[in-house]
Amino acid sequence: MQPRYYADLHIHSHHSRATSPACTPEGLSRWAQLKGVGVIGTGDCTHPGWFAELHDKLTEDAPGLYTLKPALRDDASRDVPDACRAPVRFLVTGEISSIYKRDGSCRKVHSLILLPSLDAADRLNVRIARIGNIRSDGRPILRLDPRDLLELLLETDPRAALIPAHIWTPWFSMLGAKSGFDSLQACFGHLSPHIFAVETGLSSDAPMNHRIRCLDSVALVSNSDLHSPSSLGRNTNLFFGSPSYDAMLGGLRARDPAVCGGTIDLFPEEGKYHHDGHRACRVCLAPEESLARANLCPACGKPLTIGVLHRVIELERMQTPRPGDQASPTPERPPPLPYRHIVPLPQLPAQPPNTAPAPKK
After folding, report:
1. Residue-by-residue DSSP string for 140-189
2. Measured between alpha carbons, how far is 321 from 341 in angstroms, rounded to an integer?
3. By three-state DSSP, how is residue 286 classified?
């Protein structure tokens, strides 16, 4: 039987806004062992302070993957139970917030970038530092079309990759209600063939994404997008074989079930953008309720934020031929990778008293 490991590739460091100070290489390595995650993204590789910390604390351990230097590794594992102790490797990743104009409209899209080495990240950082401020936040905001970001990334290193992040969230994503795009091709144009995976986000899961035909050509990945190390692995990906950068990305490109075991997700109803809502009025509605109210808040009459489920239904209807349309041949859909759902352990004792998972009681 092949070895298996879990990979959570979208995380943030203590240099990102609203993150825990425990989001250090040591803190992430400790929690990865406790959660059983074998490969984690470094996150925030474009931030100079975090990049320097990674360069100082990590050493290459497998092709394209890094681990803590031995003294730091021993310290990070000190209070980890023996049964949980295991190798933890880092894959160089970051997230870019693109806020830019296209066709006269403001677009806001987040992208997860993956690089085969810290040296490649260093070269990328030199280039994007000329475009915008990469020091103010671990997830920099750049006036850079993600299509141009992808081109720049591939020029920096042909083995680098871009995965559209949490593709359904309303405000900052490729297919969300506010994005202005209805397909992967509309966002990335002639560079679309270089996109081999998309991230489902916390408010959608694999079955929801399988309803959209423009995603048939890509693999689905699911990550925690954590701001605290204890959230590591709440959404994650299963891989088989020996971990390496090329093996993981090659498996995703080919959607090879011998390498990619699929996604492990929270139930999407747990995500704060799953349903429609209006936060100011504490209103949360299912899509059919929103449509019955013309997508207006029943409390104040202002427009609702259209959630992920509503948006999936909307795009699914757009791809369905209308009566009288000439039907075109429908290509056979490729088999999807597996998926399964989990309930995080802290939520189970929190349910009977109807509290959040982390209160003192």
Report:
1. -EES--HHHHHHHHHHH-TT-EEEE-STT-SSSSSSSTTSS-SSHHHHHG
2. 32
3. coil
Report d(CA 179, CA 64) in Å as an integer. 33
Report DSSP letters for 176-222, one per residue.
STTSS-SSHHHHHGGGGGG--EEE--TT--HHHHTT-GGGTTSEEE-
Q: Using only C-alpha atoms, what is the Rg of the chain? A: 21
Here the tokens at position 190 are 């002639």
Tally of residues, the chain: 361
pLDDT above 70: residue 32: yes
CA distance 145 to 238: 31
Two structure tokens written together for 322: 């209308």
Q: Which residue, among 263, 239, 255, has the nearest Cα to 335 in the 3D structure?
A: 255
Report phi then psi at 90, rounded to 5.
-110, 135
| CA 223/CA 139 separation, integer angstroms | 16
Q: Which amino acid is at 79?
A: D
Q: Can you read off the two tokens belonging to residue 334? A: 């490729």
- Joined together, the tokens standing for residue 21 give 């100070």
Q: Report the Cα–Cα distance between both ends of the chain, in Å, rounded.
A: 44
Alpha-carbon span 247 to 65, nearest angstrom: 11
Instruction: Find the largest Cα–Cα distance for the chain.
Output: 69
Asked if 219 and 337 touch (Cβ cutoff 8 Å), the reply is: yes
CB-based burial of residue 64 (10 Å sphere; 0-12 exposed, 13-18 middle, 19+ buried)? buried
φ/ψ of 325, rounded to 5, equals: -70, 145
Residue 46: pLDDT band with limits 50, 70, 90: very high
What tens digit of pLDDT does each residue of 285-327 get?
A: 999 999 999 999 999 999 999 999 999 999 999 987 666 666 5
Residue 42 and residue 138: Cα distance in Å, rounded?
11
- The encoded tokens of residue 345 equal 């352990």
- CA–CA separation, 314 and 156 (whole Å): 37
